[in-house]
Design a protein that fits this description.
Pfam families: RmlD_sub_bind. Its EC number is 1.1.1.133. Residues 1-269 form the RmlD-like substrate binding domain. By secondary structure, the chain is α/β, with parallel strands linked by helices. The chain has seven helices and twelve strands. The structure holds NADPH dihydro-nicotinamide-adenine-dinucleotide phosphate and dtdp-4-keto-L-rhamnose.
């Protein structure tokens, strides 16, 4: 089964590439906005149509996105083109050739006001530009192709790209203490967990199954914690293996002003 993966250099895409060898019946083709034989720029619909026509995949896995949460507040049009409009074009192009689409979304589609983990069926209400654009992408995918899976994940970390885990370890190289917000809670998620979850769905489809088809699912790590708790965990593990570590002060969101508002409660849960 041929799977066209967007965003070749992203965290999830790179973990998909690492895991591909465990799924010999899945042929993963990675494209990016530059540097690949077939270029796919989500901000340029013509390149989307051309890439899908060139590869005629059975599944499109959209792992690319505009993920700079604060920067999105200053570039809402570009963020909307990439996160909101392009997924609909990918989904429509997939539908035209009878292909399925897996689209990755985020906890930031929720406002964070609920006092329990969010279920896929809970009402959405994003509070920042990034979340609004990701919600538009979800809606566009649902409208364009019934053969979709929308997998919402959260707080992604991996050895690749930019993420909170790597930021903490980098800061610890030069600082004795750092201050991290202790009033935003969520589920840190390894990009490998996401890759494994999505490839398990593809394996099922390859065998003729219909696992999760038409569903919006939550695919996150098992443990919820605050960003401060996550930082402390990162340093505890790092210290145990002889890596950098530093003291973490717990602060409130009000003490760490950022351009974009983030949900206080980002916990996601998938019903059994
Ligand atoms: N990171 C996180 O904490 C979370 C991520 N998600 C979602 O998970 C998915 C994967 O995220 P993650 O792997 O962390 O993302 P990354 O930020 O690691 O990578 C995003 C990729 O998207 C590519 N990209 C950006 N703009 C375009 C464009 N116009 N055309 C083509 N490619 C583009 C980037 O390309 P380039 O290398 O050229 O910059 C990059 O390779 C996304 O849908 C994201 O919204 C959901 C929840 C949490
Ligand atoms: C670096 C740093 C951040 N923070 C705070 C800011 C913010 O509230 C929180 C997380 O910071 P970041 O900017 O690294 O994370 P952020 O970019 O908000 O992460 C989000 O990315 C997008 C793509 C998603 O979809 C989300 O699930 C989520 O993972 O930690 C501190 O309190 N101290 C620090 O030293």
């Amino acid at each position: 089964m041929k799977i066209l993966v967007t965003g070749k250099e992203g965290q999830v895409a790179r973990c998909l590439a690492d895991r591909a060898k465990d799924h010999p019946k899945l042929e993963l083709i990675f494209v990016a906005r530059e540097g690949t034989d077939t270029v796919l720029d989500l901000a340029d619909p013509d390149t989307i149509r051309a890439a899908v026509a060139a590869h005629k995949p059975d599944v499109i896995l959209n792992a690319a996105a505009y993920t700079a949460v604060d920067q999105a507040e200053d570039e809402p049009d570009l963020a909307m083109a990439v996160n909101g409009t392009a997924p609909g074009i990918l989904a429509a192009e997939a539908a035209k050739i009878g292909a399925k689409i897996i689209h990755i979304s985020t906890d930031y589609v929720f406002d964070g006001d609920l006092d329990r983990p969010y279920l896929p069926s809970d009402p959405v209400n994003p509070i920042g530009v990034y979340g609004k654009t990701k919600l538009a992408g979800e809606e566009a995918v649902r409208a364009a192709n019934p053969d979709h899976v929308i997998a919402r994940t959260a707080w992604v970390y991996s050895p690749y790209g930019k993420n909170f885990y790597k930021t903490m370890l980098r800061l610890a190289e030069t600082k004795d203490e750092i201050s991290v917000v202790d009033d935003q809670i969520g589920n840190p998620t390894s990009a490998y967990e996401i890759a494994d979850g999505l490839l398990a769905i593809c394996d099922d489809w390859e065998k003729g199954g219909s696992k999760r088809l038409g569903e919006t699912i939550h695919l996150v790590g098992p443990d919820a914690m605050t960003w401060c708790g996550f930082a402390r965990k990162i340093f505890a593990e790092s210290k145990a293996s002889g890596g950098p570590s530093c003291h973490v002060n717990a602060i409130s969101t009000a003490d760490y002003p950022t351009k974009a508002k983030r949900p206080a409660n980002s916990r996601l849960e998938q019903p059994a």
